[in-house]
Specification:
alpha/beta; globular; 2 domains; Rossmann fold; Arc Repressor Mutant, subunit A; 5 strands; about 280 residues; 14 helices
Length: about 280
């Protein structure tokens, strides 16, 4: 079984928004992670001057399935080196340094994102992909690049997918969707105004909604039926082009795509071969 981690960073991110009973537990775990992983919920509640019920509520606040899930993630953290921070570039930085820094940032972002992805959320998304008549995908700006990549991958395996840069066209298509369809929304911040507005309309239409966003509380994570999280680490100020966060979102799309291909192997391979032959014939 693959090792999971990220428990300590997840606690740090949500700590300020927790009620006092859960905040006491979060602080205790961060101060005593080695001890926390050996405790029962009751022992942790008592040690943090809180309660076992608050331990269960904390896990729910973290979007985790159980206290055991949290302990496994913390145990994984203890076996790793310190979490990464983005390496910024400087004026007239040597190209060799930029190669090293960008590679480090990208690999680290993907590695951290793995810790936030829950297999249950991926499995839910796969069920919806298989059962949806139409799939609407929306993102704006840098997230629009991810949405476009998502559409072209899904189309290759025969999924009826739509992505439009124009929010009005997106809403027009969404108007003909219902409970048997799926709308996928992509926003790293989870607060992009245009994306949230369309998401609210999808909810009114009772369309199933999937969000791809950073871990933590946001308008998107509160609204969608299912959220798949990437690492919430912010990029260096000088790199406003969302380089590493874009890679993390693409990584999630690739996981969804390859999981779908694996689960529906023969029919998806046939679809890919069919589209490949058409493109090759068009180039002749």
């Amino acid at each position: 079984m693959a090792q999971i981690s990220g428990g300590l960073s997840m606690l740090k991110i949500i700590e300020s928004r927790l009620p006092l009973s859960e905040k006491k537990i979060a602080q205790y775990i961060q101060d005593h992670p080695d001890a926390a992983v050996t405790m029962t919920a009751q022992e942790l509640g008592e040690s943090s001057n809180s309660s076992s019920a608050a331990v269960v509520r904390l896990c729910k606040s973290m979007k985790l399935s159980s206290f055991q899930d949290l302990k496994m993630r913390i145990a994984g953290d203890l076996q790793q080196s310190d979490s990464f921070e983005y390496r910024d570039i400087q004026v007239n930085e040597p190209v060799v340094n930029i190669i090293d820094q960008m590679t480090y940032n990208t690999v680290s972002m993907i590695s951290e994102t793995k810790d936030y992805i829950q297999k249950e959320k991926i499995e839910t998304a796969l069920e919806w992909l298989e059962s949806s008549s139409k799939i609407i995908i929306y993102g704006i700006g840098a997230s629009g690049i991810i949405a476009y990549d998502c559409q072209q991958k899904f189309l290759r395996v025969g999924l009826n997918s739509y992505y439009f840069e124009d929010p009005h066209l997106t809403l027009t298509t969404l108007a003909h969707c219902g409970p048997d369809d799926l709308a996928i929304f992509i926003s790293f911040s989870g607060e992009t105004k245009e994306t949230i507005n369309i998401l609210k309309q999808a909810k009114k239409l009772k369309v199933r909604t999937l969000g791809i966003t950073k871990y933590g509380k946001s308008s998107m994570s509160d609204l969608v039926d299912c959220a798949i999280y990437s690492s919430p680490k912010k990029e260096a100020i000088s790199r406003s082009a969302a380089t590493s966060t874009r890679i993390a979102q693409l990584h999630i799309i690739d996981i969804l795509f390859m999981s779908y291909v694996s689960k529906n192997f023969q029919e998806t391979i046939d679809s890919i071969d069919k589209s490949k032959k058409l493109v090759e014939n068009d180039n002749d």
